[in-house]
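Quality-control log, excerpt.
Job 1 of 2 completed; input and output follow.
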Amino acid sequence: QVYVWIYDPVHFKTFAMGLVLVIAVIAATLFPLWPAEMRVGVYYLSVGAGCFVASILLLAVARCILFLIIWLITGGRHHFWFLPNLTADVGFIDSFRPLYTHEYKGPKADLKKEEKSESKKQQKYDSEEKSDSEKKEEEDGKTEATRNSGTDGSGGERHSDTDSDRREDDRSQHSSGNGNDFEMITKEELEQQTDEGDCEEEEEEDTESGPAHGKS
């Protein structure tokens, strides 16, 4: 690329705020040239803003003093805060809400805390017992499943044993039948072979006797 064109326009809001800021600075520098009425009005506004800031600071100190007095009188049992969010990191309106907060930290509160802790412990104990019972039930279910699988396996082995026995019986029967047939076949073959052997011997004798007669 030979060149790049970057277009980054300034928003109108930022432009207007900058212009107002520049005008305010120039007007503040020209304060002695203002009319008398405007100068008096600005004076009263500045005094009111200072009073407001001072009242906020005094109110913050007063609320701390009030809390300390109530805390000492009640022996540390009552905690009363007036405008608790006054010095908190919140907005301007939220700094004045809520108006006050009160907490009681006496023996009854301790008893309530103990009761709550005991109830929580009981709930935890009950949950643990429930979990233990559930684990036991799961273990029982697993043992039953293993037993059932064992019984099924033994039944399958029995079936397989019976099937194997049946197959062996069938094989023995077939083997016995085949043996008899083999014996019968061998006997017939032997008889045929003996008959053929006798015929061959007679032919050989005839052939031998024939030439002998011719010589004689």
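Job 2 of 2 completed; input and output follow.
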Amino acid sequence: IQVLLKLWRNGFSLDDGELRSYSDPTNAQFLESVKRGEIPVELQRLVHGGQVNLDMEDHQEQEYVKPRLRFKAFSGEGQKLGSLTPEIVSTPSSPEEEEKSILNAPVLIDDSMPATKIQIRLADGSRLIQRFNHTHRIKDIRDFIIQSRPAFATADFVLVTTFPNKELTDENLTLQEADILNTVILQQLK
């Protein structure tokens, strides 16, 4: 590893770290090791027997000034917390299965009218994709879910948009009026 030792009037610092006082016995021992040409014990522990390149800068005519922290981009991984989106436990359906659900769907489409595709993520983790006309109503989505998955016929559920999360309470609105064309709708059990 590469370490930069900066000597200041009132102490020393390693890389861009905090000021270490010359009067502290641990720090004095660190500097004595450097003067003898040895690797200080602190750095030996840091590299676990690896190689250390120690560079030094003399700033003994200056007082220590804490350096500004440089921006460091986040390098970890993100985790989504508190999402209304249910966890998908099934594997994504294949294009053939999606096509089959579209072809077997009980929704009547008027091909002379504008149409949209709606993806519905069900509470059981599965999903449905269906074409609807812009003039279909939210209650048509509810009916489609019940006809496609009869197990939900007796379940009390609501339909919710993904972002921003909004419950679709007025089921008489058309899909266009509800502004849910080409979107994902979530089914949530009450």
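Post-run check on job 2. Residues 25-35 form the longest helix (11 residues).
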